[in-house]
């Protein structure tokens, strides 16, 4: 073991339910263990229990069960990057309801606050195909606008407003303020389930998709983080949709490691699912 | 108008040389904008009338922009106040119902006087003209060198030329120097509906009256706007 131990790289993975956090964690673990990509495991982690159900389901060609709402497990993965930098990657798995509650209750629990304070980088995961600016009177004008009934509306804020609100809360708890653009923590916006975008995903770069589908969030990120301290990437952890009950034969035969990809900043597809982590590690260590 | 403003910002429009960088009142913006979206369980409509209620200080909506030139942030506060306040303020500056309007007149850095084309073309257009003229006179009296803009709202509706002319004359006579904008949610033949808003927003953020003094906010992680449940 030539690689020298350095401080752990603590990443905060932030995403609501059903954005694919567990699937990505499981696939990432398998990629790291293959030891052929940018980031490689230097030793078998002591405990991979958190992802056991996920890897088992994927090997059977099925989607993994939903992570229970109150779970929060951190695994420690000893990895080395392609420049020989050794890092202890702390990778979390948890039920996304916890993030929804942060936003809805506007309250950050103590354990979340501690994680936010010590994190070197934040990864914000968004299931991009489910996010689009809703049609309003500007995109789809009316013949006649009627007077509104305030009671007839539902109380759901648009997804991009929720994500901006979430980031504002996290920045506040971190105690940094945004009078000047932020350096730390580095931010990586990961647009997940990229395969659901179909044709749009083949023609666009991740930042273009974010600007088109969530312009308010794109502005917020670009104007509050310094250049080079934030990045937007695409992710398809599974490469295709899987069913919880019906087995995908190709998955079983070729193995889950043959599926899934990252969309790099320039729009190029890359099967190396460790890229977001190695990018974030490099941004953090450059600082 | 505020709702429409938020929606075009949410579509990525921003004033010249600036980009959206945050809002302490996102939920407030969402609440007023919701009725103009198609997804709210039916066709969109204009937002409900702001009720005049019992409050003495208007609701404030906040939006911050980062200046692309020097990286500074600029915070805009919009008041969402009921029209009745301004109506009584125009008639009697000291009226008790006009307390909210007096507060606004004292603290505002710029005024947008909105001419509702629908009302000025409607059955009660005489009354609408009267109220608007009184408001123009009051604003002219109170502006004290602060920027004023006359905004023709719902401008796809034609206002009778004589009424339009009398409003314009009143604005020149009482307000003096001012800019004029028109907007409608229905696109004009000449351009997108959002362009008018971007122009108006650019004017608002760039306007600096002689009384304007910037507040240096410094780093403000402990800002009181962001009291997220601490100390409860």
Task: Explain what this protein looks like in three dimensions.
The complex is a heterodimer of chains A (287) and B (232). By secondary structure, chain A is α/β, with parallel strands linked by helices. Chain A has ten helices and ten strands. The two termini of chain A are 26 Å apart. With 232 residues, chain B is an alpha/beta fold. Helices cover 38% and strands 18% of the residues of chain B. Chain B has helices spanning 2-10, 26-33, 83-91, 99-107, 117-121, 125-142, 161-175, 193-206; strands at 18-22, 45-46, 59-67, 73-80, 111-116, 148-153, 179-183. Chain B has a three-stranded antiparallel beta sheet. A three-stranded parallel beta sheet of chain B has the order 5-6-7, sandwiched between helices. In chain B, helix 1 packs across helix 2, helix 3 (83-91) packs across helix 6 (125-142) and helix 6 (125-142) packs parallel to helix 7 (161-175). The chains are: A alpha/beta (287), B alpha/beta (232). At the A-B interface, strand 6, helix 5 and helix 8 of A face helix 1, strand 1, helix 2 and strand 2 of B. Strand 6 (146-147) of chain A pairs parallel with strand 2 (45-46) of chain B, so a sheet runs across the interface.
Highlighted features:
heterodimer; A: 287 residues; alpha/beta; nine-stranded mixed sheet; 10 helices; 10 strands; disordered N terminus; B: 232 residues; three-stranded antiparallel sheet; three-stranded parallel sheet; 8 helices; 7 strands; 38% helix; globular
Q: Largest beta sheet of chain B: what is the strand line-up? A: 1-3-4
Mean pLDDT of chain A: 87
Instruction: Indicate the radius of gyration of chain B in whole angstroms.
Output: 18 Å
Uncertain regions spanning at least 5 consecutive residues of chain B: 224-232
Tell me, briefly, the overall form of chain A: globular
Helix content of chain B: 25-40%
Topology:
The complex is a heterodimer of chains A (287) and B (232).
Chain A: E1 9-14, H1 21-34, E2 40-41, H2 52-59, E3 72-80, E4 86-94, H3 97-105, H4 110-118, E5 121-127, E6 146-147, H5 159-174, E7 186-192, H6 199-203, H7 206-213, H8 215-224, E8 230-236, H9 249-254, E9 261-263, E10 269-270, H10 275-286
Helix pairs in contact in A: 1-2, 5-8, 7-8
Chain B: H1 2-10, E1 18-22, H2 26-33, E2 45-46, E3 59-67, E4 73-80, H3 83-91, H4 99-107, E5 111-116, H5 117-121, H6 125-142, E6 148-153, H7 161-175, E7 179-183, H8 193-206
Helix pairs in contact in B: 1-2, 3-6, 6-7
């Amino acid at each position: 073991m030539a690689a020298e131990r350095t401080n752990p790289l603590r990443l905060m993975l932030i995403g609501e339910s059903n954005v694919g956090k567990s699937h990505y964690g499981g696939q990432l673990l398998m990629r790291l263990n293959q030891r052929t990509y940018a980031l490689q495991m230097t030793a078998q982690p002591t405990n991979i229990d958190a992802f056991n159900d996920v890897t088992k389901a994927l090997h059977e060609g099925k989607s993994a069960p939903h992570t229970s709402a109150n779970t929060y497990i951190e695994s420690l993965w000893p990895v080395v990057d392609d420049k020989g930098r050794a890092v202890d990657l702390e990778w979390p798995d948890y039920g996304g309801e916890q993030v929804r509650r942060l936003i809805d209750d506007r309250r950050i629990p103590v354990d979340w606050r501690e994680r936010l304070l010590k994190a070197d980088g934040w990864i914000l995961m968004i299931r991009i195909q489910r996010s689009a600016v809703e049609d309003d009177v500007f995109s789809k004008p009316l013949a006649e606008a009627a007077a509104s009934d305030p009671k007839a509306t539902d109380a759901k804020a648009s997804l991009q407003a929720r994500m901006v609100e979430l980031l504002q809360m996290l920045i506040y708890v971190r105690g940094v303020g945004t009078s000047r653009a932020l350096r730390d923590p580095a931010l990586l916006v990961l647009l997940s389930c990229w395969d659901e975008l179909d044709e749009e995903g083949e023609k666009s770069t991740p930042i273009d998709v974010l600007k088109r589908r969530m312009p308010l969030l794109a502005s917020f990120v670009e104007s509050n983080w310094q250049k080079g301290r934030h990045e937007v990437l695409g992710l398809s952890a599974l490469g295709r949709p899987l069913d919880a009950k019906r087995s995908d034969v190709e998955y079983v035969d070729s193995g889950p490691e043959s599926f899934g990809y990252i969309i790099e900043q320039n729009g190029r597809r890359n099967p190396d699912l460790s890229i977001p982590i190695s990018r974030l590690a490099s941004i953090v260590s450059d600082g | 108008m505020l709702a429409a403003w938020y929606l075009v910002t949410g579509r990525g429009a921003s004033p010249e040389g600036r980009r959206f960088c945050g809002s302490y009142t996102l939920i407030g913006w969402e609440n007023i904008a919701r009725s103009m979206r198609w997804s709210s369980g039916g066709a969109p409509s204009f937002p409900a009338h702001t009720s005049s209620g019992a409050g003495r200080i208007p609701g404030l909506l906040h939006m911050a922009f980062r200046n692309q030139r020097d990286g500074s942030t600029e915070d805009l506060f919009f008041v969402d106040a009921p029209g009745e306040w301004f109506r009584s303020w125009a008639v009697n500056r000291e009226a008790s119902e006009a307390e909210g309007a007096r507060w606004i007149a004292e603290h505002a850095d710029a005024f947008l006087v909105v001419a509702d084309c629908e009302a000025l073309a409607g059955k009660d257009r005489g009354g609408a003209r009267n109220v608007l003229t009184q408001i123009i006179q009051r604003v002219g009296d109170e502006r004290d060198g602060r920027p004023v803009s006359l905004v023709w709202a719902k401008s796809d509706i034609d206002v009778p030329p004589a009424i339009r002319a009398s409003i314009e004359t009143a604005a020149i006579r009482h307000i003096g120097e001012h800019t004029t904008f028109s907007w409608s949610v229905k696109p004009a033949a000449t351009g997108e509906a959002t362009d008018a808003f971007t122009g108006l927003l650019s004017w608002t953020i760039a306007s600096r009256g002689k009384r304007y003094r910037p507040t240096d906010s410094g780093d403000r992680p402990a800002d009181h706007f962001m009291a997220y449940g601490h100390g409860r």
